[in-house]
Write a structure and sequence with these properties.
Helix content is 76%, strand content 0%. By secondary structure, the chain is mainly alpha-helical. The longest helix has 25 residues. 26% of the residues are buried.
């Protein structure tokens, strides 16, 4: 049973999100989080009891930030294709801002960490359902080609999201100091707003019913 909120728990979560974006959720240490939040260590244990509960609270709050932007993009006015572009840009921006969190989670899942996998399946899939629904709407209106989702989703993910996550991998491998100028150039060419929008346009052009013309 969770403790009643006093505002202190929200300070801790905000501090946790800031630190997690730098080094991942698993690296969070209660004492460091409390120092960042300006909160007594006892309040950490009062609200969250243990590190795992706190990690989950931070991840859920991060995901809530995504959904707060994603849902209006899906349900807003406009043609389905334009809404799809907005959703993909929102999703890519989320990956960009939280790549320090997402890359370690992906590593855990790929290494067979069942606890992480179950947590993600339970708490991080609402956007996928919305995205699939929007893609289906675009298909029905013949705004994109009638490819199966097993073709469409990987194409979008590899073109739009994977390059951003790849920057996060390179950062965790600390490749930047070895090639500072080249890395900065490549990084900005991948994660900038204009680069993301260009890849979205290219991906959707490739899915055009006219065969990418």
């Amino acid at each position: 049973m969770s403790r009643p909120s006093t505002g202190t728990d929200k300070k801790l979560i905000e501090a946790g999100k800031k630190l997690a974006r730098e080094d991942g959720v698993a690296s969070l240490i209660a004492r460091n989080v409390c120092r960042e939040a300006g909160v007594n260590l006892g309040m950490f244990h009062y609200h969250f009891r243990n590190k795992k509960n706190f990690e989950h609270a931070v991840l859920k709050d991060l995901y809530a930030e995504l959904m707060a932007k994603f849902v209006p993009a899906v349900s807003g006015e406009g043609e389905p294709l334009e809404k799809l572009k907005k959703c993909l840009f929102t999703l890519a921006g989320f990956v960009r801002e939280n790549r320090g969190v997402i890359v370690p989670m992906a590593r855990d899942i790929l290494s067979g960490n069942r606890e992480t996998l179950l947590f993600v399946k339970k708490n991080f899939t609402a956007h996928v359902r919305l995205l699939v629904g929007l893609i289906e709407e675009c298909r029905k209106k013949k705004m994109i080609a009638d490819y199966p989702l097993t073709v469409t989703l990987p194409m979008i993910a590899f073109a739009v999201l994977l390059p951003v996550a790849g920057v996060g991998v390179a950062e965790r491998l600390e490749l930047g100091p070895f090639f500072p100028i080249a890395f900065s150039f490549v990084k900005n060419g991948i994660i900038s707003d204009s680069a993301i929008r260009t890849r979205i346009d290219l991906a959707l052009r490739g899915l055009s019913p006219k065969g990418g013309v």
